[in-house]
Amino acid sequence: MQRFGGLEATGILDEATLALMRTPRCSLPDLPATAPARRRRQAPAPTKWRKRNLSWRVRTFPRDSPLGRDTVRALMHYALKVWSDLTPLNFHEVAGSAADIQIDFSTADHNDRYPFDGPGGAVAHAFFPGDHHTAGDTHFDDDEAWTFRSSDAHGMDLFAVAVHEFGHAIGLSHVAATRSIMQPYYQGPVGDPLRYGLPYEDRVRVWQLYGVRESVSPTAQPDTPEPEEPPLLPEPPDRSSTPPRKDVPHRCSGHFDAVAQIRGEAFFFKGKYFWRLTRDRHLVSLQPAQVHRFWRGLPPHLDSVDAVYERTSDHKIVFFKGDRYWVFKDNNVEEGYPRPISDFGLPPGGVDAAFSWAHNDKTYFFKDQLYWRYDEHTRRMDPGHPAQSPPWRGIPSTLDDAMRWSDGAAYFFRGKEYWKVLDGELEVAPGYPQSTARDWLVCRDPPADPEGADGEAGAHARPGQRDHSRSEDAYEVCSCTSIAAAAPRAAGPLLAALLSLLWTAARALAL
Predict the structure, then answer these.
(1) What is the C-alpha separation between 355 and 462, in angstroms, rounded?
(2) Are 211 and 269 in the same domain?
(3) Strand 324-329 versus strand 265-270 pairing type
(4) What is the domain extent for residue 324?
């Protein structure tokens, strides 16, 4: 990973390496599968196109982006032109449904084994040439803030990422060369699309695949005539004149509408948005993602959710809002939903919180000072419920949120604080409540100015937790995803990072 990121290959998890692990990147693996048995059983897949005229089209466009459709198409044209200027390849846009290179803007799991993960992390991927139906197809994460000709540090330059991904689409793999456009990690904008030229390392690699375009000198910049009517690129969007969305909440300001563990990760819901934490309690992104775009099937106008939990019986995800609930399998809503919460035996008026307790495998619902205990296997409420006040001593009588976590403990949230109950215990662990914003959302404690400040960690640390500097915060906000088992918190962030690194390497070899 250090080699592919342009760092000295020391094998040490220093600050530069930890910062690299959070850098947005292409979601294709850096290393190919090398199993000898696989090579013996299968013929090598084609690594380049056997034809020279390739069609392309943008099949789906960004949903919420300042870049219009014509701008997106123009950027795709110029990103492909970077490669056709040097090689005998010719790219032409088509309007029909059939195209060699299909371009999509997608979110989350989009049925290709490379799911996106919200803002940051994996930003795009493309498929190598071959005889499979996805050959050349290129996908961009629609949860990214796509920009062009912009100095916005929070945006993702669409032209730069497209040039990289189209390199994959014509057969180039990742390379460790620091200046190469095919380095896996996002390096920021590469300049004006009308004037960009590939670094020498990339020119040599693509010439090895396809040869040199006639009249192009291997040592000179390409000088081919422009098409008669090249697409126009508008002036970059004036972000100062575009008012920011007022409904986007700050993660460090106050309580949350719902908190849930889903597939081993923590989700904090507030308004129309959510933040996501990996198994080792690291934020995927400081910026929230939109709920209805991640779980398609929830109403787009839904302003918030009341409670969310993952069923232990079948691992489906249940959302509550008012008197209705939805059931999702992964990111897709099941047929027949929404349905009334009376299916659970709950009265009208909605719920405040819901979670499944690992100790008895029962689901608990909370509303005001009442709670219900529900059996997922019999689909019935246990006798004697609702009951007054939760059974765990030391937690508030009314709750905002509750969830089970991968450490086996149950966590209860109210306002700006949370309480921890160890697995099987009926009393809050010593030292609680603690600050939700500080311990889960990488914020100062207390937040000095939630709406105007960055709210980064580092000002204070709870007893037994190391005080993080700003450079260490770069790791806490980790853009890479990992499904390795969560490391014990006492082992510290370096062990968690090592597990994530080992998993990433193993996954790349397996693919």
Answers:
(1) 26
(2) no
(3) unpaired
(4) 258-479
Pair 314, 446 in one domain: yes
Task: Please enumerate in sequence order all residues whose Cβ is within 8 A of that of 425, keeping only pairs 6 or more positions apart, or say none.
Answer: 392
* Selected residue with higher pLDDT from 222 and 103: 103
**Catalytic entry in 8, 15, 93, 165:** 165
Residue with tokens 């004006």: 192
**Omega into 230 within 30° of 0, i.e. cis?**
no
Q: Is 137 marked as a binding-site residue?
A: yes
Nearest CA among 218, 48, 210 for reference residue 136: 48
339 in a domain, yes or no?
yes
Beta carbons within 8 Å of 32's beta carbon, 6+ residues apart:
173
Confidence of residue 247 (pLDDT cuts 50, 70, 90): low
Q: Using CA atoms, how far apart are residues 417 and 438, in angstroms rounded to an integer? A: 10
pLDDT over 70, % of the chain: 73
- How does pLDDT run across 459-476, given as a tens digit for each residue? 333 333 333 333 233 323
Here the CATH number for the domain that contains residue 298 is 2.110.10.10
DSSP 477: B
Measured CA to CA, the distance from residue 180 to residue 301 in angstroms comes to 43
Is 306 found in the same domain as 218? no
Residue 225 and residue 319 in one domain: no
Residue 83 lies in a domain: yes
- Rg of the chain taking only CA atoms, in angstroms: 25
Q: Over the stretch 413-428, which tens digit does the pLDDT of each residue have?
A: 998 899 998 887 888 8
Note whether 237 and 262 are same-domain residues.
Answer: no
Task: Tell me: is residue 110 an annotated ligand-binding position.
Answer: yes
Q: Is 354 annotated as a binding residue?
A: yes
174 is in an annotated binding site: yes
Q: Where are the alpha helices (DSSP H) in 291-414?
A: 291-294
For the whole prediction, is pTM greater than 0.70?
no
Residue 456 confidence class, pLDDT cut points 50, 70, 90: very low
Q: In this predicted structure, what is the pLDDT of residue 232?
A: 63
Q: Is 117 annotated as a binding residue?
A: yes
pLDDT in tens, 473-509: 332 333 333 222 333 333 344 444 444 444 444 444 3
For residue 225, pLDDT over 70 is answered with no
385 is in an annotated binding site: no
Same domain, 202 and 279: no
The closest alpha carbon to 112, from 131, 139, 130, belongs to 139
Task: Look at residue 43 and tell me if it is in a domain.
Answer: no
165 a catalytic residue: yes
Q: Does residue 116 fall inside a structural domain? A: yes
